[in-house]
Amino acid sequence: MPPYSNCTPELAPAFRKLFFACTTTPSVVSFAPAPCDQSMGVRVMDLQLFGKTALVTGASMGIGRAIAKGLAAEGVQVAAVARRTQLLEELGSEIERGQVPRPFLITQDIMAADAATKLRDAALAGLGRVDILVNCAGGSRPLPLDAPEEKWEEAITLNFTRQRQITHALLPQMIERRWGRIINITGKSEPDRLNAAFPQRPRSTPGPKDCRAMSANMGSRSTRSLPGAS
After folding, report:
1. What is the mean pLDDT of residues 98-123?
2. Cα–Cα distance, 26 to 60 (Å, whole number)
3. Which of 17, 71, 101, 147 is most buried, judging by how many CB atoms fall within 10 Å of its CB?
4. DSSP letters spanning 35-76
5. Domain 49-225 fold
6. Residue 137 neighbours by CB under 8 Å, 6+ apart
7. Where does residue 75 rank: exposed (0-12), middle (13-18), buried (19+ CB within 10 A)?
């Protein structure tokens, strides 16, 4: 059963948007009613992801955790990345209870200088290849006007630099196979106060025209997903 078959009608469109970005051939994605959810009016899709592999950062809680569970429910072999081993183990057990393969768990702080290389090596060793990359790790960084430079550097590293480095580390093997999906979870584009994360998150992936050019030449796609946007 696809991951959003038991979610609320409000959340279902966001899940559809995210997982539609991963599909092999969007033109042939099929919709089918889910009997257990007809009362909520939620429909589910065959996303043709069975047998794919995915690396999901920030997977121990929140949006990243939901994405990891959702991909696993679609038959994707997931490598789940987070700092906290205990939360990753809980995620692994929860996914297993859904009678799908246990995810490959990687404990890694993406703020470490060598995080991108370590994640690439660990994911390729555990999965063999990475078809789908979901850059979800990151966080809001409200700052006062007189914030020291290191606070800005930390925010930029967390919300832009590491996303770029992880993407660059995994992109060559996607290009080699001429298939890949890169999804960057961003944030709202209109901040209500000074926040060092906002200028970086929307720019952690090329724009739509750049993405189409990359897709034509390399067989891979890159997209942004804004939580809460339908």
Report:
1. 95
2. 29
3. 71
4. GGGGGGT-EEEE---TT-EEEESSTTSHHHHHHHHHHHHTT-
5. Rossmann fold (3.40.50)
6. 57, 58, 64, 81, 82, 110, 158, 162, 163
7. middle
